[in-house]
Amino acid sequence: SPGRHIPGAYHPDGKRLAVINDLPDPGVQIYNLETGKVLLNLLHPSGVKAVAWRPDGRLQSCPRVPSSLGA
Questions:
Q1: Sorting pLDDT into bands at 50, 70 and 90, what band is 12?
Q2: Is the pLDDT of residue 69 over 60?
Q3: Which has more pLDDT, 68 or 22?
Q4: Rounded distance, CA 20 to CA 28, Å?
Q5: CB 21 within 8 A of CB 43
Q6: DSSP code of residue 54
Q7: Which neighbouring-strand residues pair with 16?
Q8: How far is CA 32 from CA 3, 18, 53, in A?
Q9: Cα–Cα dist 46/4, whole Å
Q10: Radius of gyration, alpha carbons of the chain
Q11: What's the rounded Cα separation, in Å, for the pair 21 and 14?
């Protein structure tokens, strides 16, 4: 939707994009930017707060901490 910020990170090679997805399945989706297709859907039950690619091309993510843990 217009004006909505979707957190994500471009792969160092510029060919993939990792996007945080909240609903219906919380986690991260990896997109091929040339085709627009989802390459991988990584689910995480509590959701993901942040995502980044390491310089070596490996994906890092920071899961959300459930509020029951005091975060």
A1: very high
A2: no
A3: 22
A4: 5
A5: no
A6: -
A7: 32
A8: 23, 9, 15
A9: 21
A10: 13
A11: 20
Residue labelled with tokens 């890092």: 60
| Residue 70 pLDDT greater than 90, yes or no | no
The set of residues, in sequence order, having a beta carbon less than 8 Å from that of 7 and lying 6+ positions away, is 19, 20, 50, 51
> pLDDT tier at 13 (50, 70, 90 boundaries)?
very high
Q: Which two tokens stand for residue 5?
A: 């910020």
Amino acid, res. 50: A
Please, what is the Cα angle at 14 between 20 and 5, to 5 degrees? 30
CB-based contacts of 18: which residues, under 8 Å, 6+ apart? 8, 9, 11, 28, 29, 30, 31, 51, 53, 59, 61
Q: What are the φ/ψ torsions at residue 68 (nearest 5 degrees)?
A: -65, -15
